[in-house]
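Need tokens for this chain, all 662 residues.
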Amino acid sequence: MTPAASAPTDRAEWRATLDRLTDSLLAARTADGHWTGELSSSALSTAVAVIALTLVDRHRPPAAHSALVSGGVGWLTRTQNGDGGWGDTTDSPSNVSTTALCWAALAIGGTDDPPCVAALDRVRDWMRRAAGSLEPRPLADTISRRYGKDRTFSVPILTVLALAGLLDANGRGAEARRGGHSPKGGRAGKEGSTGFRAGDDQGGQGDGSGTIGSGWRHVPQLPFELAAVPPSWYRWLRLPVVSYALPALIAIGQARHRQRPSRNPAARLLRRAVRARTLRRLEAIQPSGGGFLEATPLTSFVVMSLVAAGESAHLVVERGAAFLERSVRADGSWPIDTNLATWVTTLSVNALARRPDWHDLVRPADRAALSRWLLNQQYRERHVYTDADPGGWAWTDLPGGVPDADDTPGALLALHSLGAEDAEHLDAACAGIRWLLDLQNADGGIPTFCRGWGALPFDRSSPDLTAHTLRAWTVWRPALPDALRTRTERAAGRAVRFLERAQQPDGSWIPLWFGNQGAPDEVNPVYGTARVLEGLAVLSDVETIAASEQRATRWLVDAQGGDGGWGGGPGVSPSIEETALAVSALATYRRLPRAAAVHSLDEALARGASWLIDATDGGRRVRTTPIGLYFAKLWYSEKLYPRTFAVGALAAVETTDLRYHG
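Here are the structure tokens for all 662 residues:
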């Protein structure tokens, strides 16, 4: 628990803390001069990687991955929570999705060693409490309720449970027949101990009629046949998964079709007819590195599903397994994604650029290297995965990245900080701005990947992405050619109106890609409100929505804890990340003349900055908090988040003329 903060009597302590955090942030650069960060290890990722590699080994002897499987199982047993479940990070409370997948991993890839047996006993008890029963129907219903209409993650989890035999009629499946990997790497159990019929890779299919494999009736059929149509049609098809889950749609859909074909003869014929075509589509969109979106979960789901579909020898499986081999960590775990290099680099640049002396801290040669690196990350061709036009940026510099509407504004802001007058920067900015303009939805908001793909959460307009885009449009607007500037002004007006409509009755905004595990409904209005307030603060008095700004600012001030920190919402335990974001937004707004209408702003800023000083021990240490959301409420923490956010916050406060002295 961080002690209550009191405002310092002078700025020396703020400056010393800021300097230490800045030095450590600069020291975290790679040899190439940018940042890669480090994502938290994930029990969910480790579980599905263990399952995928185990199934590959069973169908492609010898068991080449037995050491990785044993290492992953060992990491899972060591990190199991005291209540018997697992959360997404080692700092996360147990949840039903991750716990179910870890249960399946121990059932499929575990051994009869005492630690694994004890872990299985504990996880069975946890799942029984969560679902009310270990019978197939309650288990399936519990998973489905967590995600509602969005099948992006519920169907993969149900697929895993079916593969493990945990949805079979006897309710135990592979766990009841567990053999485990022998010390020499071979599976001691039988081939049929998983909940699918192996057959030969091109041969027969499970009929779903027996005990083994009967669990597939609880797995909804994904319409993989729709992947055979042109990508331009996707937005009209109302697919039951989000845009970036197309590989899972194809692979899981084919596994379900093979294991339990539709009773409708027309559907069976259609799926049989397009099976090869959709597999070619899957192969075409697989990145050269083998990892779909650089994500262990998505890649693992694809690999294990293709094995269940009778395609263990397919090139996609080979490449995917190789990606998993390269992605494992020394302790046996896997993260959810390889890295967020582009994202954390732009966060770092934009945080440092808040310091008036940042050009002295980052030498011209280093700034030039950062510029070149960022320019090289811009997509110059249509993206094979999402069919996105050129001009955007992804979260990573690796081949599995996909351009999106949070990383693109971040890159645009970083390039502006690195030199708005540079002609090459302006050319890249114009392309990025056009990319975002083309992405804008009819409601004026900005979605993540694809315009108008559907109504599922990760394809809808989002306040935090819209505000980030608005900020990037606005800072570049004076330098744009006349026609593009005019188009941007109109789009900004529509974005502002969207934000006004999206504001919650209490004055906050709810973000898309960030949450808080301790907040009601696991949302993070502090993150969302801070991001939107920063986006609105760049607008002129005639462009902004002053009433919405003031309500949001008052909400942020009122959400501050008694100790001076912020959590994800009122009454939630504070974190460095959320406190820094709130301080940064309030300090940015505080510099505007229209901020005079908000009372207690200086006091809130001073107390928040002091909390950051105490929480970081004057900039000597930072602790990460899981506030990041991947897809489908999959939590992560990132090592650089607290550092970059704190640097940006304290730099913003330092340049603000506060009139509060405690």
